[in-house]
Design a protein that fits this description.
By secondary structure, this protein is an alpha/beta fold. The protein has 10 helices and 17 strands. The strands form 5 sheets. It has a 6-stranded mixed sheet with strand order 4-3-2-1-5-6, with helices on both faces. A 4-stranded mixed sheet has the order 7-8-9-17, with helices on one face. The mean pLDDT is 96. The protein binds zinc ion (3 copies).
Length: 359
């Protein structure tokens, strides 16, 4: 059994969970290394105190083996009932935990197959494992960060006045692959007023000379780890001084947060350090989202850097520091780095200039 599975089994025992059931998704991939597709036939990891087994359709045994799954694989045929099979493997469990993203149809089918068991969510348990990265995971995140930095460094090849956000975005997407990702997760090119919408993607708006452009991009590398970095650009002219002053405040806030983050401080206090600076400059109500999110095999995972999250940072936690200021109808700005908590501070995984980049 792999070390991760062993830790999952121990943690489950500590929480009084008799069986942990995990269907395809990031948790399954993390625990088994198997990036199974979420198809209509059931694939389900079954972790009990006695053993760990992977239930897969007969026709997918070869795929699971090819992924290097290191445990007993139990298959079922086209006309068998996979839920009865899982119930059989679980035995008489009192508490069954299911992954947070399991399809409702499967949860109900499992409940029907195990009418005596109580069902709880198992996502937190797996998240507690995933939140602290192993050295190999930190290395993979560092490579992802370097890959997205190379894309930002090439922005001058594509971002020009007279081109649409969509045209620029298509070029960026190609470069995300060319620079070492296997998949493009998102491309945000927010020009002028579109920059004021944090999750704007691209549009047919034509980029104007001298207007600020927010570029937030990320992908997944072949190792399965995600990148995510935001920088602010202006092409073909000078931006409004009001914007420049605002970006300066944002830069100070983001810098202060990077200086402050270290083991033992809470996630919410990292948020507060930046929010205070932005509020004192009069933009408090324009920082309309949390400071950041954890990152690993998923772009958004724990720990969330947000007010109310008293989680203390620990070495190995990876997360974004991405304060933003958004002035509806005018412009917006966000500066985003992925960082990893170390023994005495943080390692910053994105290292292109955080100043306004003039193209
Ligand atoms: Zn986001
Ligand atoms: Zn982010
Ligand atoms: Zn981002």
């Amino acid at each position: 059994m792999t070390e991760r599975l062993d830790r999952a089994r121990i943690l489950a025992g500590q929480h009084g969970i008799d069986a942990l059931l995990v269907t395809p998704g990031a948790d399954l991939r993390y625990l088994t290394g198997y990036a199974a597709k979420p198809l209509e036939r059931l694939t389900c990891l079954v972790v009990t105190q006695l053993r760990v087994q992977l239930v897969v359709p007969e026709l997918e045994r070869a795929a699971a083996e090819a992924a290097g799954v290191d445990m007993e694989i139990v298959t079922f045929g086209e006309t068998d009932d996979p839920f009865a099979l899982v119930a059989d493997l679980v035995g008489n469990a009192e508490i069954v935990a299911v992954d947070d993203h399991m399809w409702a149809s499967r949860v109900f089918a499992l409940q029907e197959a195990m009418p005596e068991a109580g069902f709880v969510l198992g996502g937190q348990l797996v998240s507690d494992l995933r939140v602290v990265k192993e050295q190999s995971e930190v290395d993979a995140l560092r490579a992802a960060g370097a890959a997205i930095d190379r894309v930002h460094a090439r922005m001058g090849e594509w971002l020009r006045p007279g081109r649409t956000e969509r045209e620029v975005g298509a070029d960026i997407a190609r470069a995300i692959i060319d620079e070492g990702h296997e998949q493009v997760d998102f491309v945000i090119v927010g020009s002028g007023p579109n920059g004021a919408s944090p999750h704007h993607e691209v549009s047919d708006r034509v980029i104007q000379a001298g207007e600020p452009v927010v570029v937030d991009i990320g992908g997944t590398t072949p190792a399965g780890y995600c990148s995510d970095s935001t920088r602010n650009y202006v092409a073909g002219g000078e931006p409004d001084p009001g914007y420049v002053a605002m970006l300066e405040v944002l830069k100070q806030a983001q810098h202060a947060q990077r200086e402050y983050a270290r083991p033992g401080v809470t996630a919410e206090s990292v948020d507060a350090v930046g929010r205070r600076i932005i509020a004192e400059a009069g933009y408090g109500d324009r920082f309309i989202h949390r400071t950041g999110h954890g990152i690993g095999q998923e772009t958004h995972e724990e720990p969330y850097i947000v007010e109310g999250n008293g989680t203390e940072l620990e070495p190995g936690m990876a997360f974004s520091i991405e304060p933003g200021i958004y002035v509806a109808g005018q412009w917006g700005a966000r500066i985003e780095d992925i960082v990893v908590c170390t023994e005495d501070g943080i390692e910053v995984l994105n290292n292109t200039p955080r100043d306004l980049v003039r193209l």
